Each structure stands twice: as structure tokens, then as C-alpha cells.
Amino acid sequence: MERTISQAGIVEPVPTVLEMLQDSAIRFPENEAVVFENIRLTYRQLVAEIADLASRLSKLGAKGQRVAIVMPNGLDIVVAIYAVYAAGAQAVPLNPDYTEREISEILQDADVLVTLCGRAQYDRVGQQLDTLSKNHAIVLALSPSESVDTEQPLCEFTLPSPADLAKLQYTGGTTGRSKGVMLTHENVAVNVLQREALIPMRPGVERVLCVTPLYHAYATAMALYPALSSGGALVIQSRFKPEQVFDALEREHITLFAGAPAIYYALVSHPLFEKCNLSSLSASFSGSAPLSLDVLERWQSVSGAPILEGYGLTESSPILTFNPRYGVRKPGSVGLAALNTMLEIVDPVETDKVLGCNQVGEIRARGPQLMVGYRNLLEETAAMIRDGWLYTGDLGELDEEGYLFIRGRKKEMVIVGGFNVYPREIEEQLFMMAGVQDCAVVGVKDAYLGEVLHAFIVVRPGSALTKADVFERCEQNLVRYKVPKHVHFVETLPRTAVGKLDRARLSVMGEELI
Fold first, then answer.
1. How far is Cα 333 from Cα 355, in angstroms, rounded to an integer?
2. CA–CA separation, 244 vs 125, rounded Å?
3. What pLDDT does 13 receive?
4. What is the pTM assigned to this prediction?
5. Cβ proximity of 1 and 15 under 8 Å
6. What is the Cα–Cα distance from 287 to 216, expressed in whole angstroms?
7. Any idea what DSSP says for residue 460?
């Protein structure tokens, strides 16, 4: 396959991710493609499994329909995602831990033909999966044969059109109805190439460790697609367990690690961190929230490999920015805009007013990776994308060189006595304290000031940090209205199913602790 990216931009035609996988199988048929527990699948074996499942789906009339995927990390979900593409259907990946209510609401909205699921998921919510799919659910439990006829030609897929819908990815969110983000094959494939331009892969070389859930956009964008579109190996773990991560990093000679902020905090605090051999690592990835400078420095000093931070949304397939693998990386920044992507910072109220460098405002983006829209939600789509611009709801600023710095969520802005306060500014001060392992600041309603700030802190084991230390640090470095009124020491911070900080829950906790 001819490379379709350059420093000048992306050129046509753009191959779909299914075509990228097929190309990897042609170039590296006997290379390891997927490693999960005791299963090691070559590219030849992987495409055979995908073709078999795609054939089953095609016989059910999957082309142009939606197929839900409800299963945990493993071989099955990898095969399922690509098989849905190969059958000409739209994949609807869902959290396997969703409750009956959550599953029911989404399946009703998605109007799926069939659901592919794991045995545990069927045992728990099988009635909903059967009732709310046009066909009964299919339970996958693949046991690939170890022997494959190496003389047999590789399977060739019927490739979808770039304009065809590829995914219906439901946004997480902590409140309200989940929204189904409609993405085309072109959206997804362009984003793979945009990531490739910032973080180029070595063909047939990379071994990518994935511990984040593969039903989520981050894991597919930073682990699944990069590994399998480059002829590398995708090493999957079912769930995040620090001991298993350290073992895999060393035993599997991992070159790239797709982590998340909470994962890195847990790893650098673990007793095995400085004992593990991480010499094979070339780089690691992180997204969803900025990492503290302390974690960035500790990880690189021990592993010798940087953590590359990036930023994006489900609505942008998901990557908008990333720090480059080779080039200037700025701590605290989520990097440069992806190829063919425009970023602007606009006034949070006068949203057509573009702000200058180093001014905080709402981030808006424009590019070929933006979603078609939300399924069945025309008004919400129109509110999110206006005149071709995706209004992210995130606050940030661009420096003179185009590096983006996230400053919080627009809706997270706290108004204390009439003053606008962005929690991230206070959190950055707290992260500079040696005894702070993790922290978050939220606004809680107050009868006098409207809102007051509550700081929640996870103290590093063995630290003698006190609340008085926290107040002193804040009072020395922040104007009075930015100093938290309350400081709470907690064991952990609440997070959503995809690892994002649950600020809504923290606000409730703050009210309860007053």
C-alpha cells in the first residue's frame, strides 16, 4: 500500500482500516498480530478468523446495518470489530459492564441487527441483548487453530466505501442521555493517518500493550489501529493490574504502551516500578487528562521513554492533537494539531470571537476526522458543530508555536463570588507538592459566594502532608478567591467507566462532607 501521508497533508485515496489490516497481512503474514493470555495469533490466522465471522454476519444481512459489540478485552473483540467492517456493517462497541438499563437505552437508540457478546455478558444481560436486537445475540468464544495452512491464499475482504458508516460510538458522559457518534470509514482512516504523521510506526516492529478497554475510542485509536495497520503486534490485557503490566512490558518486549493518567499514577507509585526492565519501551501514550510534571519525569527517568500526551473527543474520531514521537514535546501540553486540522481558541461567551496566543477560551476544531453527527439528535448535532467547527466544550490556550494546553472544561468553570476560576490552575499547584499523588478541585454550591472550591487529594504513601501544608501552598501561589475553602484527603478519586475523573460525583461528595 502506498503511504498516503506527508508533511504537507493527507492525499487521496484514503485506505480504510480494513484495507490497512489486509495490507499488513500481505506484508507480514506470519508475524504475531494479537497476543492475549495463551493465544498468539499471526496475521494469517487473524484475517481467517475475521473472514469467518464476517461471512456469518453477511448471511444475516448485516450490510448497511448496525452490529453491537458487548465484550471485554481479548481476541474476540478485535475479531468482532474488523468482522463488522468486513461485513459492510456499522460497529456499535459498548461497555461490557453496562447495566440492563444502560444496555437497553443504547440498543433501542441504535436499532441493531445483532449483538456480538461474551459469555459473561450474555449470562448477565442476555435477555436485553436478544430482545433489543433484530436477531438473537451471538456469543463469541474463539479458539483459533494453532495450525493454519501457510500455502492457502490470504483471505481478501470486500472493502467498504470510505463514505460508509463505520462506527456508532456512544459517548460516556456522567449525566444525561448517551449520544451515538456516527463516524465514517473515512473519518476513522484519516485519523489513523493523522496519528501516524505525529507518531510514526515502524512497520513490522512495534509491540503495543493495551490495558485500556477496546470498546473505547482511545484504545482503538492508540493501540488497535496503530498496531494492526503497521504490521505490529497488539498485546492485550483483560483489565489493568500493575503487576501484570510490569510483567508484560518486560516479557513481551513492549515498544509502545497505551496508558491513561490513572494508570500512570498507579504504576509510578508501585514498588515494582523501579525494578522492572523497561528498556524495550520507545514511547508511551496518554490522554483524557493532563499528567503532572512529576509523573512525566519519573516515568521517563526510569523507562528512558517519554509519555506522549494528546487530546481529542469521540466526535473527532478521536484525535485532534498529540505531542510528536520525534520532535519537540512540551510538558503540560497535549501537543500540536493533527494534519489538516485547524484549532482555534474562542471566547466562551462570544463564540465567534477568536482569541490570541496564551489566552484561555473554548477550543474549537475543524478537520476531516469530525463526525457526521449524533444519531437521531439533530439539535444536539447542530449545537456541537456550527459552520463546520466542532465546539469541544473544553477550555485551553495555544502558545506561539501552536502547542495546545488544556485548562479545563467550560462547564467545570467555577464562579466564586463573581470571579471565574478554572480548577486546573489550582490542581497544577497541588501536583507540585511532593506528597500529592493525585488530586482534583471542584466547585460546590455556597449560599454566600455562589460556589466555593473543594480540593480532593490522594496522599502519596509515606508522606507527612497535612491540610495546613496544602492551604499554605495555595495561599502563597494563588489569589484569595482561588484558594480552596475545604481540603479533603481521600484514598481514591472517583472515575467513570472509561477512566475519566468523575467531577459530578466529587461535587456531591463535597456537599456531603460540609
1. 18
2. 29
3. 79
4. 0.86
5. yes
6. 12
7. P
